[in-house]
Predict the 3D structure of the following.
Amino acid sequence: MYSAEHNGNSDRSGHWEAQLRKGCLEMAILASLWHSRLYGLEVLRALSEKSQLEIAEGTLYPILSRLKAEGLLQSEWVEAEAGHPRKYYWLTPAGRRRAREMAVAWSEFSTNLSALMLPILGVKQR
Amino acid sequence: MTNPVSFSAEPLADAQMEGYLSRLESALRGLSAEEKGDILLEIRSHIADSVAPAQDRDAAAARVLRLLGDPKELAQRYKAERMLTRASRSFSPLLLLRTTWGWAKLGMKGMVAFFVALIGYGIALALTITIVLKPIMPSRVGVWWGRGDLNVGMVDHPERMHELLGQWYVPVMVVVAFGFAVGTTQALRWLIRQRTPKQMY
């Protein structure tokens, strides 16, 4: 997030895109935990590999902490072979519900907007 | 390099991490020992995991610490997140004021919330003071009308103005002050719940 925001070339569209990405963080983090329990670094990797969403670790951890305080996530320390414990997060039933609601809303939103955007990219519809 | 998690062979990476963690620890002051320990252990674990597979561990340590950001800022985010979550369920003006003050340091929307808190609770407090003063100085406290000017509370020259409420001053102002306090609280809770990650970061 910092690279997009502080690159100083005052690229307005770049800034706008950074804002859009940030707005989706909570949804993306919940979605990354849909299939399995992950620890912080794995959440970052999942976001970066599956959605090219590069977020700074300094942004991720406080959000995980809040999502847990809101009852959407649960966590547990697990001893790892690495020699230090790792904190794994998973979705609570409330978290799964929220993720599903967000997925539905997002998919409707993006489908509707795409219909508006595609002509700009020169894509013919139907 | 035989033990991938030992930092003893790489004193620089080790020193960087310990320095960062101790600065983070002092910046997290105010959280409970349990919360603090939990955060520090998680960040420590994250740094160790990021550094362990790297060829150049010093560079990897420098990189992950840069991505974690200034420890003070990181601590501020944790605190703001925690307080905002708590405050969005609270009715305590004191907690809401403290929380919006912390939030105000992070951006525009927080500043707006803080000023709403300051003005709303300020008016409620000022009215409460006049309610207490009314029985002590009944002839000077009131809602005064005169020369196209409306004054609530104490005026210097009551003889030049009309008092509108009389003995109704106390009950009416109790309702109005209470209304301001409750209205401000609801407005702040609403503002806090409306926040998105965009406004937090």
